[in-house]
Design goal:
The complex is a heterodimer. By secondary structure, chain A is mostly beta strands. Chain A has two domains: about 1-35; about 45-335, TolB, C-terminal domain (Neuraminidase, 6 Propeller). Chain A contains one helix and 27 strands. In chain A, the strands form six sheets. Chain A has a six-stranded mixed beta sheet with strand order 14-13-18-17-16-15, with no helix packed on it. Chain A has a five-stranded mixed beta sheet with strand order 1-4-3-2-27, with no helix packed on it. A four-stranded antiparallel beta sheet of chain A has the order 5-6-7-8, with no helix packed on it. In chain A, a hairpin with a 2-residue loop joins strand 16 and strand 17. The radius of gyration of chain A is 22 Å and the shape is globular. Residues about 155-160 of chain A have low confidence and may be disordered. Chain B folds into two domains: about 25-215, MFS general substrate transporter like domains (Growth Hormone, Chain: A); about 230-410, Up-down Bundle (Growth Hormone, Chain: A), CATH 1.20.1250. Helices cover about 75% and strands about 0% of the residues of chain B. Chain B has helices at about 1-5, 25, 30-60, 70-95, 95-115, 120-150, 155-185, 190-210, 230-235, 235-250, 255-265, 275-300, 300-320, 325-355, 360-390, 390-410. The longest helix of chain B has about 30 residues, at about 30-60. Chain B starts with a helix and ends in a 13-residue tail after the last helix. The relative contact order of chain B is 0.14. The model of chain B is unreliable at about 1-25 and about 415-425 (pLDDT under 50). Chains A and B meet through helix 1, strand 8, strand 9 and strand 11 of A and helix 3, helix 4, helix 6, helix 7 and helix 8 of B.
Chain lengths: ~350, ~425
Amino acid sequence: MNRKNRILALLAAVLILGGVAVGATLHAAGRSAEKDRAQPGGPRVHPGEVVLDAPRLSVFRNMAWGPHRDEIATVPADDPAGPRTSSGVRCLRFHAAAGTGICLQAVHGRLRDSYRAVVLDAHLRELRRYDLAGVPTRARVSPSGRSVAWTVFVSGDSYAGTSFSTRTSVLDTRTWSLDRDLEEYRFFLDGHLHKASDLNVWGVTFADDSRFYATVATGGRTYLVRGDRTDRTLRALHTNVECPSLSPDGTRIAYKKRVEGASSDAPWRLYVLDLRTLRESATAEHRNIDDQAIWRDGHTLVYSLPGDYGSDLWTVPADGSGSPGLSMTAALAPAFTG
Amino acid sequence: MYLADSRTTPDPSDTAGRHPLPGRRAALVPGAVFALGSVSLITDVSSEMVTAVLPLYLVAGLGLSPLGFGLLDGVYNGVSALVRLVGGRVSDRGGSHKTVAAVGYGLSALCKPLLLMAHSVPLIGAVLAADRTGKGLRTAPRDAMISLACEPGTRGRAFGVHRAMDTAGALLGPLVAFVILRAAADGYDAVFTVSGCTAALGVLVLLLFVPGREDARPFTEPAAGRAPLRAVLRRPAVRRLTGCAALLGLTTVSDSFLYLILQRRLDLSETWFPLLPLGTAAAFLLLAVPFGTFADRVGRRRLFLCGHLALLAAYGLLVSPLGDSPTLAFIVLALHGSFYAATDGVLAAVTADAVPETIRGTGLAVVQTGQAAARFVCSIAFGVAWTTWGDRVALGSAATGLAVSVAVSALLLRPSPDAPPEPVR
């Protein structure tokens, strides 16, 4: 093949490959535009005022297609399939308690996207905002509404950056003092100070404004830890616990447990740990769970599973009885107001 | 079908580079080097597109927890180093650098559409491992082709041009991915498809425009024997060079640690942090060609060592109590980029000087693997030192180690005169 033919071959390939590339992008763009149109049969969503301190509400990220997709919305807690009131505030992750909301959202910049954490008051007005170092994954507010915590995934910058780590921050919304990285706390394993460079902390759940539970990973194992903001410590209590969620009475932890024999791409099951006896019990949900569950009340767990719109919310009794039930389609990151 | 093409008589203008003619082409770099640079640029656009969106895809797109990926990172690094040695050896023994490089680029290109089908962390991890295997395979034969395509006296510039093009691709990739995601929210499949098309284009440019062995300059020595690895290691010059590259690699703190220290020193916000690698890349991009050309003039070993002095200066600035002015960040990143510009391509050129053509690929693989393995050990040790004694002490120790390594390397690399470089034909 002479030079001219090579260039012709290259041009032909550029046209074909370019056509495929443009086609794939247009197809994805069309699909994305479709998500902005409400689907017949989907949940009814209308814009309105959302308040976080009204009683008996379920607040969540609305995943239903249409103009209000990804916005924080509410339904009456006893009518989860009812019409949704959508706030206009877009969040990837969200949680609320006692009139304080934490919203982890994407910011679409001119050259790249970034993320931030926004602390909201009961009327979803912004109080403070903080830049985030990576993709948001977990968010929690303490029962009194004073402390908030969030976790993001940070990835390395190396070629095929496959090394991921978490960064978890805790914020006091009265003094606005921020502990940017819980890995800087002292970590005690079996009563001894444990120093490791591979420490990762994620999934905070608050007991009160300064004490909390979370997951620490190091040396290929995960631990349930009790954390304290006052003396900046994390103390390991139990192994193989991820994404803990403390019951309203503070006696039990719902969490995802990596179970033996499960396939490596679906390794987690929903378990409950009794903090007084450290006894583990499985729930009746036997599917893989990758979420930080929420206690709707003292005996019901709510968690996300993949669904037609990305995520549906399911419930199961915390005591291992009963069976899982679909609570809400097209919803993620719920919180329940008193 | 394109492979067969390399047997036909090459167009004279295509080979101008290997026998530089006076005139406009001779002033640039050989056509083959430009072609290999284009292949790397296109391939880096493709791979960096994927790297840029991968965390978001895993977490937001698939709803997966990507933790645990990091655990396998060490394994992948080890595999990639072994594969690189295999790539160099096979390409020397079979005598076809182009074929091995094409297999490497092709494997990585195939991985892009596979990402569309992998929906779990272990599967995606496997695809990325295959992608890295491709990268490991192609690196040594590609550098061997660059070194064989140019006159020995201009190797520094040739590698400089290649590394600059490579870095340009790495900078463009994330931008392309961003434009696609802006046009199509959640369009990760579009990103992977475009990445696959781009990678395929890279392979095609390699097959069409990079000359194969058959039409290259004939060897002045017999083809590699059955044991190119042993032949490489028998050469004292290569042993010394590998030793120095490894020694210096042992004290080269990984980029991410350096950026973390910089962030702490300047109390940089999370928004600015991801931009730090761009500073290094920009300096690398701008300086790779001038430094490569300069290396040809003043001696490549000398510039290779000077590059490490730039890194030492960067460490010094970070350890010193010079305050937290943003100027510090610019100077540190400029020094860090200079370090890469003065060492990355230059090391390949130095290696080419010390290894005969018949075992060139193996020689490059040995030196680069030695360096990569040492850097990996360094990042583990540095992580431990950081947690035990804090970042300042850790970096201070690394700086001391680096100063000693540079001094030892200066002694080890001295016996062969620095300038003019002694090329091995």
